[in-house]
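Exam revision sheet. Question 4 asks you to relate a sequence to its structure. Input first:
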Amino acid sequence: MNAPSGFLLVDKEAGPTSRQVTETVSRLLQPEPPRRRRGQPRFRVGHAGTLDPLATGLLIVLAGAATRLQPFLQGLDKRYAATIRLGTATDSHDREGAVTARAPVAATPDDLAAALASLTGTYPQLPPLLSAIKRGGRSLHELVRAGQVVAAPASRPVRIDRLTVTARRWGETPRTGEEGHLASDGLVYEIGLDVVCGSGTYIRALARDLGTALATCAHLHALRRLEVGPFAVAEAVTLAALAAAPELAALVRPLADALPHVPAFTLDEDRAAHLRRGGQPEPDWVPLPVPALCRFLDPAGHLAAVARRDPDGGRPVLAAVFPLGAAASPEDEPCG
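Answer key, structure tokens:
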């Protein structure tokens, strides 16, 4: 039996990498992978946006032909619940890194409000050196941990739409087990934040930058992803629940539901078949003005193709095709 193509909303626990989550889902979907015939595409499972091992929360896992949807999901806005600890810096900018500095925290609540305001909007953010950014085909964190001297990546503009304080511990005595990440006076200075941001924002780097804005240092102590575009962690299931599901395939969501924020147009059988053969849509299949991105469905509601607006001609141009019952094609790249 072929593994299903579609997507799953997974509530990731702390510890595993995003790739390890996709590998687990792949094994659950194909506990005994069938022998592939020559030229037969390999079943792929990937994800639409990395979560660090420290982080928990929403991870969109894509299976089979759904891996072709990764470029259209990668750039969605995100919402996080973040806990930032002030007074201690680490080499990874989160609590799993080695402590590199300790400093006093002299900021007041008014100072905190001003610092958060200065980081709201668009600002140039320097990504962490220990990150998945590629250089020469390898991730920067791999190069650093292999002992190589690596130049810092270039800063890039990020967009922060909301930074709301949800909790605060200021100058408190540490609890048992908290002794390793304290300010220089031995106390806990910590805030919880509700963060809404654009794609590509590093919350670890935001923690570092907040420390700088408060004339101290800081690191990310905990992180939970609550939303990715139209999807929420309340809809997600844990890996343990997936493993215990009697019919896992029934939990895999259809391709047509993966882009609910993208306009959809239903075609007749002939036009849908035309797209699935790689034929281009006609301009009059989409009402004017042509959207930047659109979906084409067949009469049964199955996803036939995704199209982009041609910047020159203003017409829809194929961006991805989804034959009925197809797995990912051989040239598809894994997302994980």
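Marking note for examiners. The longest helix spans residues 18-29.
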